[in-house]
Every structure is written in C-alpha cells, then in structure tokens.
Specification:
Length: about 525
C-alpha cells in the first residue's frame, strides 16, 4: 500500500502568510488521522520550542493510524551524533519514526555545509545509524536529489547508499527547488530503484507548477511513499498538493492509498486547514474547490443536467464536493430549473413560474446583480417569485451617522427600526467600526430578541466591486457578503449607487436566509 506523508505542519507552515499555533496543529493532526494519512510531520523540534511543545501535547492524542513524525537534519560537522543537539531533540520527542534530511548535491555539501563530498557522506551515514541504533525508524529525505543527480548522478546515488547502509527504512527523493520536469522525475526514481533495495519516496515542490504531476509520475515509476502538503502550502510557490494527489492516485490510477470514507472527507479537511491557516480557501483547486464542479455556460449546464459525465471527470461526492450550477447572464432556463429542482421537482422549464423567475433574473443581472457567489440571495429570490415568500421582518427605516471626533478617529452610529411579523416594533441604535458594521450591530440588536439564533451568525467576508469605474464616486457598486452560523456558509449580494444601501441589501439577505434555513429545518 502506498504511504501518504503530510508535511503541512512543517513545510507548509513555511509558506508566506501561513502560521499555525500548537492548538491549530493538534486539530489538523486529528483531522488528517481521521482522513487516513499514514505519517504526519509535526515540526522541527531542534529549531524552536513551539514544535517541541507540539510533540509533548500530542502525546495525549488517541490517533487511529497516523504516526506523528519529527523532522531534523543530519548532524552538524562540529558534533558527533551522540552530542548533536538536533539528533538528540529528535530522540527527545519519543517518536518511533523520525525524518532527517541530508545533502544529495555536492554543491550544497561544499558551498552550504562547507565540508568535502566524502565528509557529507559520513554525516549522512553516521546520523542515520545513530538514530537506528537508538531504536528509531528513519525516513531519509534526500534534499535536492534531482538537481544533484542531474549534476553528478554517481555522487547523488552514493549519498542514498550511505543512508541505506546505516539502516534507513525509506529514502525520499526531493525536488527541493521545484524546477524539475515529470520525465526527469521518472528517470531519477527508476535509477534509484535499480540501485537501492529500499522503498523510494517523492517530495516535490511546485516552483515550475509541476508538483502534483511530478508526484503522480514518480508513483507510476514505482515510488511507494508520497510527501506533500494540503492546499499546496509551502515556501515560495509551495509543495505538491495532497488534496490533488490523493484523489488522482485513488480514482485515476486505482491505488489504494486511502479509504472511500476518507476520500469523502477530502474537501472538508482541505477547508478546515485553510480556515486554521487563516487564509482564503482556493476555490479553483482541483477536486476540493467549490468551482471544481461549477458550471456556468448554458450548453455545459444543459449537458450536465442530462448526464453529469459530459463535463465532470469524477462524481463530486466522492471527494466531499458537489455539483454547482452558476446562475448568470450566460445561463438559460434549463440552468435555473437545475438550480431549483431540489425544492421544486415538478416544475419544468416552460412553466409560468420558471419563466417569471428567468425574466426576474435577467432583469437583476442587467442591474448588476450576480448570483454565482450569492446562493442565499438566489434562494430567497426564487422563493419570492415562485410562492410569494414572506420575510421574517420588515424594515421601517434606518439612519447612519458618520462623524470625525477630536482625536481624528471616525465614529459610526446606526439607528434602526424594524417590525416583526406579529406587528411588534423594535427601535434601537449601535456604534460600529464603520457604517456597515454599525448597521449590522444595530440590526442584530433589534432582531435577536425575536430570533435568538441570529447570535450564531457572523460575517466571514465582505467584498465591494465597482461596476462602472467611469462614473467615479457615483458609480454603481456590488457588495458580496459571506456569512456562517458555524455549520454552513452562504453568500448574499446587494447592488446600488449607494454603498450603504448595497451593503444593507446583502446584510438583510444574509440574516433573512439564516431564519429561512432554520424554519426549513424545524
């Protein structure tokens, strides 16, 4: 069985803008273990106290199958193995399996470590042997292997043979600079397998955009161990993306690297890691992005309505994703019908209701509304047109005051009056960091007495797009709001020449959708 080795918490954590706390890492470890990852690289305990703290905290985790692996380097030339702080830190974690990297490229031995080529081989062999003699299973990462192999193939192979002589369980070939092409990777893997009787692994980076392809072709050449990060996080252009590698190996090559149940959790795990990294999820990722199975063109939509295989290379549900029909000015009535068929299975594309919705949509699109990222607004529009949806509250009026105070700060205050369905009126006010924030707080303050569940809703994103830049400050704007109640995410849209009004429309739809969703689930 092929081994999956995740290095999101170490190599991925080196990516620009990525930072995981110890608590974040523990949550990710549990999620990756549940997914079915075999090895999870926890960090570099010899380099910082936070990573050592992680290994201490992880001792309390009850993992199903994953091994948490510390990462380190071969010994420093100044130290013997038994006195090397880095190797001792690896032992101190208590982990049974450890990973160390060494230099495969003579250029790095002489110009970076400042040792001779032969001394570098001794560093590798003595470091691996010390760890093995202390009861550790060693995964040896051959840093810059493919560059070294291209420069001096015999020397690159000698470094691997040193690790093998010392008792390494697996040798991992690293494309550390990320610039090698797939056929070069295949050639290198096959050359190593012909010389070394150990499992061979692959660790590609993505600097030439080949990370996933290089991993897949390495496996096709015989590699039995794949290292990568989720969402492709990593230094520079990142590492090979496990969220793409795993389903490709499983579904395209038929390699049993993960269970079907684990595969179905792929998108959820990918999004969790994005959230904990505090980075927007890349919605255009293969397999796990929300756009991966989204259809916008009218002919495409018509085709997938008849047979999903026409424009979908896999069943989206296999990886925990779903088909999405994007409603836009390029969509026809069949697209609208596909969008609403779950709620209204008996409607056809020529029914008066669908025609009315189609006309309303085209009118809204002409005004600047866009529903691709605003499914909640589309759902409310559909309900209103098809069966006279009644809102959960009515706005009687609002006022926003923005003033500059003595300390040069800007103060925003919103006053709002709303009426609940029973006729009860609530009139209240709230301050905010800006006018939209003040409106949001005032509206919640007014409504939470009637609808306590709104306390669960929080805005996760707010975007403003100017639709006509030539109109200057009088231009029409489109506001997109993304919200969540901790269980689901939804998007809403508002359009107006007044940014406050556009924001208000999107905000109203956001809270209205939460109430509608709750009523539907009740």
């Amino acid at each position: 069985m092929l081994e999956l080795y995740d290095t999101t918490l170490r190599d991925g954590n080196q990516g620009e803008g990525v930072a995981f706390s110890v608590e974040d890492k523990l949550l990710i470890i549990k999620a990756l273990d549940h997914l079915g990852i075999h090895y999870i690289e926890g960090g570099y305990p010899g380099s910082n106290p936070k990573d050592m703290e992680l290994f201490k905290s992880a001792e309390a985790l009850e993992l199903q199958q994953a091994a948490i692996v510390p990462f380190g380097s071969t010994r420093h030339p100044r130290y013997q193995p038994s006195a090397d702080p880095n190797l001792l830190a690896l032992l101190d974690t208590g982990a049974r399996t450890v990973t160390i990297f060494g230099k495969s490229w003579e250029l790095h031995a002489t110009d970076v470590l400042r040792v001779t080529a032969q001394e570098n081989i001794e560093l590798i062999e003595s470091s691996v042997r010390f760890l093995v003699e202390n009861g550790r299973e060693v995964i040896y990462d051959a840093e810059h292997f493919f560059d070294g192999y291209d420069d001096q193939p015999d020397y690159a192979l000698q470094t691997l043979k040193a690790a093998a002589r010392a008792g390494a369980r697996c040798v991992v070939l690293c494309d550390t600079n990320g610039g090698r092409l797939p056929l070069e990777i295949q050639e290198g893997v096959r050359a190593v397998m012909a010389e070394i009787n150990l499992p061979v692994g692959i660790h590609p980076h993505n600097d030439a955009g080949m990370g996933v392809a290089n991993a897949v072709l390495a496996v096709q050449a015989g590699a039995a161990h794949v290292q990568g990060t989720f969402n492709g996080y990593g230094e520079r252009c990142g590492n090979a993306n496990l969220a793409s590698i795993i389903p490709t190996l499983k579904l395209k090559l038929g390699i049993d690297c993960i269970s079907e149940d684990g595969l179905s959790q792929l998108m959820e795990t990918s999004r969790l890691i994005s959230e904990l990294a505090n980075l927007p999820h890349d919605e255009r990722q293969p397999y796990v992005g929300s756009s991966a199975f989204a259809h916008k063109g009218g002919m495409h939509i018509d085709a997938v309505c008849k047979n999903p295989r026409t424009f979908e290379h896999i069943d989206p549900e296999l990886v925990g994703n779903e088909q999405r029909i994007l409603i836009s000015d390029q969509a026809g009535k069949s697209a609208i019908l596909k969008k609403i068929e779950r709620r209204y299975p008996n409607d056809d594309k020529n029914s008066p209701e669908v025609i009315a919705l189609f006309d309303r949509l085209k009118e809204a699109e002409n005004e600047g509304y866009q529903y691709e990222a605003a499914d909640a607004s589309f759902e409310l529009l559909t309900r209103t047109v098809l069966n006279g949806y009644q809102p959960f509250f009515d706005l009687l009026g609002f006022r926003v005051i923005i003033e500059k105070v003595k300390d040069h700060s800007i103060r925003s205050e919103a006053t709002i009056k709303v009426m609940a369905p029973g006729g009860e009126v609530e009139h209240t006010a709230a301050d905010g960091d800006g006018p939209v924030n003040a409106l949001d707080r005032a509206l919640r303050k007014a409504l939470e007495r009637f609808y306590p569940s709104l306390q669960d809703v929080h805005l996760t994103d707010y975007k403003v797009r100017v639709l006509d830049t030539q109109a200057g400050t009088g231009a029409k704007v489109r506001v997109l709001i993304e919200a969540s109640d901790g269980r689901e995410h939804w998007g809403t849209v508002g359009v107006s020449e007044n940014i406050i009004q556009a924001s208000w429309e999107a905000l109203i739809d956001s809270l209205e959708y939460k109430l509608y969703k709750d009523s539907r689930e009740a």
